[in-house]
Amino acid sequence: METIALLICAIALLLVYFYHRFKRLYSYFDHHGIPYVKPILVFGNTMEWCLMKKSLSMILADIYEKLEPHRFGGLFIGRRKVIIVRDTELIRSILVKDFSSFQDHVTAEDASKEDVLDRNLLSLRGEEWKNLRIKLTGTFTSGKMKLMFPLVRDCGAKMHSVLGNISQDEDILAKEICARYTTDVIGCCAFGLDIDSLNDPNSVFRQMGKRIFAFNIINVLRVMLPKLEFFFDLFHNDKAVKQFFLDLVKKTVKHREEHNIFRGDFLDLLINLKHDNDQKSNDRQAEEDVQKFISQVGGKYTKTHIEMTDELITAQCFLFFAAGFGTSSSTMSYMLLELAQNQHIQDKLRAEIVTVLENNNNELTYEAIKQMKYLDMVINETLRKFPVGGHIDRVCSVPYQIPNSKFTIPEGFHLTISIRGIHYDPKYYERPLEFYPEHFTEQAKAQRPHYTFMPFGGGPRVCIAERFARMEIKVGAVYLLKNMSYHVSPKMKLPVEHAPEIALFEVKGGIWLRCKKLQ
Ligand code: HEM
């Protein structure tokens, strides 16, 4: 009896202790006179995320809205204090002007030094990141995109023939067909493989893609309980997936080196970097992009030697795969859903595609997709309404006084920018809830402040592959739409509900569309 009483007392004392600790922690922003959204004990502002009811990006977008009209505010991701930046001028300072104080992504803190695949562009920090980014910049110029265009077009043509086999009025899962296309594209451009997951949905590559994005509760716990990270790492790394990619790249690099094979894909460009570390580029755009990058990072760049080993090459290819296929296929499937719901936009877009193709002898060329201006508007509006990376983050590396405020962000603090919040802000978009490609006429774009459209992030750390992603989505859209029409299937659950457990925006139950062949 006595023992039970003692136990109850001990638990009660512990609860009181933790209650006070949390209370003190959660008074931080009050104490500094910073507006914030009231947290809930233990969970902070992210209870719905922990309970897998809402994605983190959606929660951040809600907080962005609640903090109107403040330039910035506070929130808690579990126990972690985070600043959310709302004002576009302040966003510019953080992403560009004062970039040197906010160079790293939060992911860099999670990266393991022992894990070779964690030495990828997204996870590297400081000088190591800068040097690698400069090296890889030349891989994504328009010239290189033009080289890769035929490879992407071949995957588009394959998707077109798969769609051709679909029986009249069949229902399709949009994300599935788009993901098979983008898996083939990235497999072909980053790994030099003809994967053909379009015809073989169970290809090893497609399975690997599904495993990379398989959600687990570990991801939530890692953020909530950072001190136990070493423990979660035991579960986190899907070692089989990593080994698969390591073996694959090593084998392909060896084969290409031995047989002198050149395909013009990412892997070739990375192998070139391996053999000629400081090769002089004869790509003018690469030089310009690098100069722009160096001026943006604040002239503090010290060139250091990076040896492009097979492991480092694999780490980049693996990231291109992980960052590339899900983002682009989600964007494409959201675009199809909106087009199915807005037949007049779909008709107008198809008319543009058909006209441009006719004017180009029915051939899809790199130049032809550049002429499809309405397609650009539709893609931009899709990326506005469904920014697959719904928020971006930065880590503050030196104490930073927020301009025109008394608050100094301490070193190590996390910052976040809600891309989704900004994209739905009625201050910047006339019809935020509608699918309205006219948000992206030249005139509308010129009237909006900078940093109000950021699906690819911003500043020197912006998505390195924006040109590639846009090319891939445009080619995919042409093949999807030129002689097929899309309608909402009776199986589709509307209004759309987002699946909270996936890092990228996904739709609960999937996007079901009815596909019709046109003459
Ligand atoms: C619709 C497609 C895509 C979207 C919306 C997207 C979005 C983003 C965003 C928001 C970031 C973070 C930027 C920041 O923090 O400022 C990022 C980074 C990155 N993305 Fe993408 N991305 C897309 C496609 C791709 C593709 C196809 C690849 C590779 C082939 C790729 C490779 C990367 C890499 C390597 C980074 C890290 C850059 C760095 O830290 O230096 N992305 N992307």
UniProtKB/TrEMBL annotation:
GO CC, alphabetical: endoplasmic reticulum membrane
Matches recorded under Pfam families: p450
Co-factor requirement: heme
Keyword Lipid biosynthesis: no
InterPro entries with a match to the protein in the record: Cyt_P450, Cyt_P450_CS, Cyt_P450_E_grp-I, Cyt_P450_sf, Insect_CytP450_Detox
Keywords: Endoplasmic reticulum, Heme, Iron, Membrane, Metal-binding, Microsome, Monooxygenase, Oxidoreductase
A GO term for molecular function: iron ion binding
CDD domains in the record: CYP6-like
UniProt subcellular location: Endoplasmic reticulum membrane; Microsome membrane
Membrane topology: Peripheral membrane protein
Binding site for heme: C463
Similarity comment: Belongs to the cytochrome P450 family.
Protein name (database record): Cytochrome P450 6PZ16
Species this chain originates from: Maconellicoccus hirsutus
